[in-house]
Design goal:
Order of helices and strands: HEHEHEHEHEHHHHHHEEHHEEEHEEEH
Number of strands: 13
Strand content: 15-25%
Largest sheet: 8 strands, mixed
Shape: globular
Radius of gyration: 22 Å
Distance between the termini: 20 Å
Structural class: alpha/beta
């Protein structure tokens, strides 16, 4: 398989070398967490020549005997050189039973710089604080961006690259398959592993059929405002036996697996979060095509999904904005930077254009306002709003 250096993520790891944190690489299955850890190991061996590196990969046969706390601790301590700086790198840490006990023990000694990857369901962001007694630094890895896709295939034109990327997505393992059906079969295998081995195993879910129906519903309603009750009501109307409490729990589990991301609503005028409907975005659009095909495809919502994941990939905190009775697709925040963003499919129709820019024009502050659409034109401005082609915006990334 062709490899490209994911320098954006690698630099994040390099920046925290020596800090007193447990560094944890998270993200959806097959997004490249293990390859990133391999790249980091290679970097350390080149730059930290006097250090000791202990690397454990539970996917390899030679490490399968270390699946108890006692065996893991014995191996690490036996391979520790007392007078050397020691980096401890563990891939698929969740395959060790009660792994948190061992990791916490290593952390408390103060002798190890610790880096971990693991199954998303077992190392979800919400679990980290309860798993580990020390400080944690999370690096979330996403599927390939458009820019990374272009680097992989040596493409230079964002316009033509976008048309391919839109359907092929960013799960790079699928790039090995020439046939479209084989690509989608590979993605479905990731999905089955994610659902069965991760979510079902951790949360002891018996009704996989209902979980599948829920995921398919969420894939078919990407970017629609919804809540657990409205989703359960819709599924019940289709003869699915469930309730809003169960649906709410299952949605939480699905988001913890990094398959979907929840974006909350925020009242810009009242400066408060809204407890009602949220939006859900899939980590990569190829999951939708693999399971549902292009039936009922809403390109506007699909583009909105791409923008949402790209903003998260670039490190923004994301909200759906509400101003009076108007919705703003995204309020994106990063430190003291704020962006207001609308996303559309086609804005050549004047009514559509007016509808999209109207909420942005009502925001009375100086923060940047963007309308991102498939314009097929260079960027231009309208009343201070930047109008940007989606393909060019996605390709304009440091990733």
């Amino acid at each position: 398989m062709k490899l490209i250096e994911r320098n954006y993520y690698l630099q994040k790891l390099i920046n925290v070398i020596g800090t007193p944190d447990i560094k944890i690489i998270t993200g959806v299955r097959r997004a490249g967490k293990s390859k990133l850890l391999d790249s980091f190991e290679e970097y350390l061996r080149k730059t930290e020549e006097d250090a000791s590196i202990i690397k454990i990969n539970y996917n390899l046969k030679e490490f399968r005997k270390l699946k108890t706390v006692e065996k893991l601790e014995e191996y690490v301590y036996q391979n520790t050189i007392s007078d050397k700086k020691t980096f401890l790198l563990v891939d698929e840490i969740q395959l060790c039973e009660d792994f948190e006990e061992a990791v916490n023990g290593f952390y408390e000694t103060g002798n190890y710089d610790i880096y971990l990857t693991g199954s998303n369901a077992f190392l979800s962001s919400s679990d980290l604080a309860t798993l580990f007694v020390g400080r944690q630094y999370e690096i979330e890895v996403y599927p390939f961006s458009l820019k990374e896709y272009m680097r992989y295939y040596d493409l230079s034109d964002p316009e033509s690259a976008f048309d391919r990327y839109f359907y092929e997505g960013g799960m790079s393992g699928a790039y090995l398959y020439e046939n479209e059906e084989d690509k989608y079969k590979y993605i479905n295998e990731i999905y089955e592993t994610l659902i069965i081995r991760d979510i079902q195993q951790k949360y002891h879910i018996r009704n996989k059929a209902m979980l599948d129906q829920l995921v398919d519903f969420m894939l078919d309603n990407i970017a629609n405002l919804s809540n657990s009750k409205s989703i359960s009501d819709s599924l019940i109307s289709k003869k699915v036996k469930t309730n809003n409490k169960t649906i709410g729990n299952y949605i939480t589990y699905i988001c913890r697996s990094f398959l979907f991301y929840k974006v909350r609503r925020y009242d810009l005028k009242g400066k408060r979060y809204l407890a009602s409907d949220d939006k859900y975005y899939v980590c990569d659009p190829i999951f939708r095509y693999a399971r549902l095909g292009t039936v009922n495809m809403d390109y506007g919502h699909a583009y909105e999904n791409m923008v949402a994941i790209e903003l998260l990939r670039r490190g923004y905190e994301l909200y759906v904005g509400k101003l009076y009775q108007k919705e703003i697709d995204f309020v994106a925040k990063k430190r003291n930077k704020i962006l207001y963003i609308q996303v559309s499919d086609d804005i050549t129709n004047q009514d559509t254009f007016d509808r999209e820019v109207d909420p942005l024009l009502k925001i009375r502050n100086a923060y940047p306002k963007l309308l991102i659409a498939r314009t097929h034109h260079p960027e231009y401005q309208y009343e201070g709003i930047r109008i940007i082609d989606l393909a060019k915006w996605l390709a304009d990334s440091e990733l």
